[in-house]
Amino acid sequence: MPFSPVQIIPVALSFALALIFTPVVRALARRWGIVARPKIDRWHKKPTAMLGGVAIWLSTVLTYALLIPRTTYGWYVIGASTFLFLVGLADDLLHAKPYQKLIGQIMGSAFIIYYGLALPWTRFATLNMAVTIFWLIGITNAVNLLDNMDGLAAGIAAIASAFLALSFAVSGQPVEALSVAVFTAALAGFLVYNSNPASIFMGDCGSMFIGFFLASAALEHASGGRSRSFLPVLAVPILILFIPIFDTTFVTVIRKLSGRAASQGGRDHTSHRLVALGMSERRAVWMLYLFAGFAGLLALVVRELKSDVSIALILGFTIVLTLLGVYLAGVKVYEDADEARALRDKPLFAFLIDLSYKRRVFEVLLDVVLIILAYYGSYLLRFGPLAEIGTLRIFLRTLPVLVFVKMATFLVMGVYRGIWRYTSIDDLIVFAKANMLGSIASVLAILFAFRFEGVSRSVLILDGLLLLMLVTTSRMAFRLFRKVLPVANGLGGSRVLIYGAGDGGELLLREIQNNRELRYAPVGFVDDDPKKSGKVIHGLRVFGGNGSLSRICTEQRVDEVVISSSRFTEERVQEILKDCEAAHVTLKRMRIEIEKISD
């Protein structure tokens, strides 16, 4: 069925119905007292109407029944998803037990599998059935866990379903594409009321319906598409739903390491940690939207590329999100010191925290992947995709030699002695030396083992350059995250102006940015040297001094001024104090003292 402008009508109808039904459901939920009240482990701060999933379900099902042509699996997906909607609705109204909801999810999964939908990821039907059940239950609960901030779950689901609809269209499944587009439109209509600040939540009836529908529709794509290539069948559904999968995996691992139940609610999701860094709720949600959009775009791209290029892109994207996850794992989201101390007293937890802090195992595994990616990338740049049998054979034969030699070189040269968050120019020099020595040793090893038969020298040169870039970028990732992600400005801390734009001022700024417990939000520098006026240090402007401090404090809404140097005379300090008092600003001074401890 080719595209026709008439097909826009079901999408528009679904969107309009969601716009109409959502405020009606909101009013009824408020009247009947079906509201989510603030709790210590929940994010919202005021009672909010529930049952928004009713509007999403009604909009989707009515439009589907009226305007969508019947397909082989369409009504089975709608029927099973409706069953999960009812399970979620029972939980919203009657507070079902977790095992009862799990039984309902298993029943819905069995219904889907009975009518022929399964992930064809292996050659064994029984194993495919088990994987499919895990997939359906996992995605359903992933969307449920993702529903932790205004507009997050609905927005991510809308992005995922939009890319799934595009993938259906590209695969030659126009009716399935239209049905998913109708679902996307219902989510968009609900999102008008669910975006920050949300006036209604979807509830379990919504999250279960959305999650199960997305997971089931992905099965339709895997089972009915024209492309029978293994990679699209495996990667496309995972990439389209990558953000719910990533967040669920991240939260599960963190909670298990901290001794908490994975099913227990909490403020430790990816979105919560982004807000803890200083982002606004809206910006944190939009950042996750961006990642979801990139993952969906990648899902469409890998369908058209050679399998080796697709795998490299997927691996690179996974590394980026893994680095972000490791960085976010160190963000403090709980203030309960007693709970933290109790967890640290557990030997296993203490071991895992120490391992996570040192990150040596993670660094080693990461470098193995980077070595493989760099070597593959050099072949890709030199010869293109490794489609030729000869090129692939040479790549696979020489790869173990490179991994062995370069990992040994990295170990000897001290690559694993540094701490990522303090990576400096000295560390980059170490990386460059280790990489150069590793490249030379690799050339000698390949010369000795293979006599350079069929091995391109230009590939080895490119490999050295790419590996240096990848290793350096990975080690600078945490510092890059601190630059890209906001600092303390969004945490309600005092707006502080640093007096002195020299070495002491730069040291004070780094301490403020690294030590969030100070709860300072630096707004800039002020210095008496007119040559420094208008300059920028780490992204913060240097304002002029010499009598203009009071005006600057007023214009920049400064709460405190901190003198960064001990070289100021007492007379100059008194002058600064007078300016601060005139502007009703507190004056403080940084001191660094080295004391001798006597016996």
Our Rg estimate from Cα atoms comes to 28 Å
Shape type: flat
Alpha-beta classification = mainly alpha
* Largest beta sheet: strand ordering: 5-6-4-3-7-8
Number of strands: 8
Average pLDDT taken over every residue = 83
Distance between the termini: 89 Å
User: What proportion of the residues form beta strands (DSSP E)?
Assistant: 5-15%
What fraction, in percent, of the residue positions are helical? 55-70%
Largest sheet: 6 strands, mixed
By DSSP (H or I, 4+ residues per run), the number of helices equals 23
Name the poorly predicted regions: 337-358, 487-491
Q: How many domain modules? A: 3
Task: Kindly describe this structure.
- By secondary structure, the protein is mostly helical.
- The chain has helices spanning 8-31, 52-67, 74-94, 98-114, 125-146, 152-170, 174-194, 203-224, 230-240, 242-257, 270-276, 281-304, 307-329, 337-344, 347-358, 360-383, 389-412, 425-450, 457-475, 477-484, 503-514, 549-555, 570-582, and strands at 35-36, 48-49, 494-499, 520-527, 536-537, 540-544, 560-563, 586-589.
- Helix content is 66%, strand content 6%.
- Helix 13 (307-329) runs antiparallel to helix 16 and helix 16 packs antiparallel against helix 17.
- It has 3 domains: 5-344, no CATH class; 387-482, no CATH class; 490-589, Rossmann fold, CATH 3.40.50.
- It has a 6-stranded mixed β-sheet, sandwiched between helices. A two-stranded antiparallel ribbon has the order 1-2.
Write the layout of secondary structure elements.
Layout: H1 8-31, E1 35-36, E2 48-49, H2 52-67, H3 74-94, H4 98-114, H5 125-146, H6 152-170, H7 174-194, H8 203-224, H9 230-240, H10 242-257, H11 270-276, H12 281-304, H13 307-329, H14 337-344, H15 347-358, H16 360-383, H17 389-412, H18 425-450, H19 457-475, H20 477-484, E3 494-499, H21 503-514, E4 520-527, E5 536-537, E6 540-544, H22 549-555, E7 560-563, H23 570-582, E8 586-589
Parallel strand pairs: 3-4, 3-7, 4-6, 7-8
Antiparallel strand pairs: 1-2, 5-6
